[in-house]
């Protein structure tokens, strides 16, 4: 399987990135190809609605390259922190640049993080509608984390919550089987 992980967190270090890295490792352990894109690195332009039917017509190479990666992926994992009661603007801008049906026939998993235990589900609940609208089959489980699930080691966050690690393993096993 070809798995594309989109990190919508602009933070460095990032809790969201840490969870996505854990998922990528678990998928790779099952012999699946993973690519993680830190959306901050893309410098994605504001979307032009003229290209909402076909992102490949965009004059912007960044948009076309991302659209190709999304098209070639079988599974999309969207990662976001909770910002001002919703998912990140960085992720929203990226998704707005894709075709309206870019996730057609693809499994989509949502990962979110917030400072408190319950907040991460707010971002996930706001986000779940978007990939569904884009034709995606949103996985029926979400991964929500909070700062207590991590420890800072060598300037990077590491998932230390056994509950989160186990949840990630179960979800990966379910998706690949």
Distance between the termini: 11 Å
User: Averaged pLDDT, please?
Assistant: 95
Low-confidence stretches: none
Q: What's the CATH first level?
A: Alpha Beta
Question: Count of DSSP helices?
Answer: 6
Total number of β-strand segments?
8
CATH architecture: 3-Layer(aba) Sandwich
Shape: globular
Please describe what this structure looks like.
The protein is of the alpha/beta class and 177 residues long. It has one domain (2-176): Flavodoxin domain (Rossmann fold, 3-Layer(aba) Sandwich). It contains six helices and eight strands. The protein has helices at 15-29, 39-42, 61-72, 89-96, 119-133, 162-176, and strands spanning 2-7, 33-38, 75-81, 107-114, 137-138, 143-146, 150-153, 156-159. The strands form two sheets. Strands 1, 2, 3, 4, 5 and 6 form a six-stranded parallel beta sheet that branches. β7 and β8 form a beta hairpin. α1 (15-29) packs across α6 (162-176). The chain is globular. The N and C termini lie close together (11 Å). The model has no long low-confidence stretch (mean pLDDT 95).
How is the secondary structure organized here?
Layout: E1 2-7, H1 15-29, E2 33-38, H2 39-42, H3 61-72, E3 75-81, H4 89-96, E4 107-114, H5 119-133, E5 137-138, E6 143-146, E7 150-153, E8 156-159, H6 162-176
Task: List descriptors.
single chain; 177 residues; alpha/beta; six-stranded parallel β-sheet; two-stranded antiparallel sheet; 6 helices
């Amino acid at each position: 399987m070809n798995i594309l992980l989109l990190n919508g967190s602009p933070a460095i270090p990032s809790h969201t990135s840490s969870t996505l890295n854990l998922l990528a490792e678990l998928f790779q352990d099952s012999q699946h190809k993973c690519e993680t894109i830190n959306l901050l690195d893309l410098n994605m332009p504001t979307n032009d609605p003229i290209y909402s039917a076909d992102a490949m017509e965009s004059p912007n190479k960044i948009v076309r390259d991302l659209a190709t990666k999304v098209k070639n992926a079988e599974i999309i994992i969207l990662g976001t922190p909770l910002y001002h009661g919703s998912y990140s603007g960085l992720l929203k801008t990226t998704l707005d640049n894709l075709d309206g049906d870019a996730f057609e026939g693809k499994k989509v998993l949502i990962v979110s993080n917030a400072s408190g235990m319950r907040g991460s589900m707010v971002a996930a609940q706001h986000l779940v509608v978007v990939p569904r609208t884009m034709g995606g089959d949103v996985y029926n489980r979400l991964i929500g984390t909070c700062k207590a699930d991590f420890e800072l080691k060598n300037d990077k966050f590491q998932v230390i919550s056994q509950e989160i690690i186990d949840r990630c393993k179960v979800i990966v096993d379910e998706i690949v089987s």
